[in-house]
Design a protein that fits this description.
6% of the residues lie in helices and 45% in strands. The protein is mainly β.
Length: 336
């Protein structure tokens, strides 16, 4: 496969097609710069959930359940309330069943393409969204910021970086999540029921019927939870409804690894989802376990972190001062 990076149209929509190191990636700038597709072409592994017939139509209709969307703000805020050190914001409730505000808004915005290029054996793309009074959500959240995404594809997989810059005169809460949807099964040789997930979980964070944290906010791992640690947690055929964990590191190929490892026990192939230390938590969800996907989601803060009466170092809550930036990085690759 030759290295290339170019803008094309897919399903009638402009996207960025990246090819490098035996991988194929498709970035959808008009849908939050979602990584709409990631494929290990050499080993015929479809890593992320992707609809081949109408990929962009499906993605646009359900941007949290295809590909790799970037969420700001992550997960749920109780009653739509966001408490910041210098203000309290009231967001519209968009999860009527539980009366929460969920998943933020950035994953639905149309980004500007800043750069599309190759550099040796690397394909590189970057996109940007400027959030200000022109955004329809600004009436609820009048805090200007800039969102920058960079994607680098090479033989080591997909490297992702996400930067938020506070362009306002207010404090800006910094919480990031990727609602990453992995394909089940990963290849034609695989069976969905044979997928297993490994996480370096150290504490379980229980939630109530509204999927909000409840005391005690951190519990010791049960026998069920230990399946994640051992890498024996099934992802399909039974419901997983927001298993939330604080994570540490584990050993992968003799190196410290912070993130999730997915094993296809049919073939032995592994998908490694490595995230930086800012992601202190993972939450796992599989839409009742009856679909063709499952979502291990890295989060920089736990659910409803801004509103919890807990120290910031416990919840992962962070704020950016005016003019301040913060970047997180991730990498997805296969081990065959």
């Amino acid at each position: 496969m030759n290295t290339s990076c170019k803008e094309i149209r897919l399903d009638g929509v402009p996207v960025i097609e990246m090819k490098a190191g035996g991988y194929l990636a498709i970035i959808a700038p008009t849908v939050g710069s979602n990584v709409a597709r990631l494929r290990d072409c050499n080993n015929k592994i479809e890593i992320l959930r992707y609809n081949k017939e109408r990929p962009m139509r499906k993605l646009a209709s359900s941007p949290c359940t295809y590909g790799m969307p970037t969420l700001y703000l992550p997960n749920r805020l109780k009653n739509g309330v966001l408490k910041v050190s210098d203000a309290t914001y009231q967001f519209p409730v968009n999860e009527g069943r539980f009366q929460n505000f969920i998943h933020g808004f950035l994953h639905t915005r149309s980004y500007e393409v800043i750069d599309v290029k190759t550099d040796g054996d690397k394909a590189i793309a970057s996109t940007r969204y400027v959030y200000d009074e022109k955004d329809p959500f600004f009436e609820y959240y009048p805090v200007k910021f800039q969102s920058d995404l960079e994607f680098i594809l090479d033989e080591n997989g997909l490297n992702y970086s996400f930067t938020l810059t506070n362009q306002s005169d207010k404090q800006m809460p910094y919480g990031v999540c990727n609602h990453t949807s992995f394909q089940a099964p990963h290849s034609k040789k695989s069976l969905a029921k044979d997928i297993r997930l490994r996480l370096p979980a150290v504490k379980r964070l229980p939630v109530d019927f509204r999927q909000l944290p409840i005391p005690p906010y951190k519990k010791e791992l049960s026998a069920y939870d230990e399946n994640y640690v051992k890498g024996t947690a099934h992802m399909i055929k039974f419901p997983i409804n927001n298993d939330m964990y604080e994570i540490d590191t584990m050993d992968v190929e003799g190196k410290k690894f912070h993130g999730a490892v997915i094993t296809d026990t049919t073939t032995g192939n592994r998908i490694c989802y490595e995230v930086d230390d800012a992601f202190k938590f993972f939450i796992v969800w599989n839409d009742r376990g009856t679909k063709d996907y499952y979502c291990p989601e890295p989060m920089s803060w736990m659910i409803d972190a801004p509103n919890l009466d807990l120290p910031a170092e416990e919840t992962g809550y962070v704020e950016l001062a005016p003019g301040e930036s913060k970047t997180v990085t991730e990498r997805i690759y296969t081990l065959v």
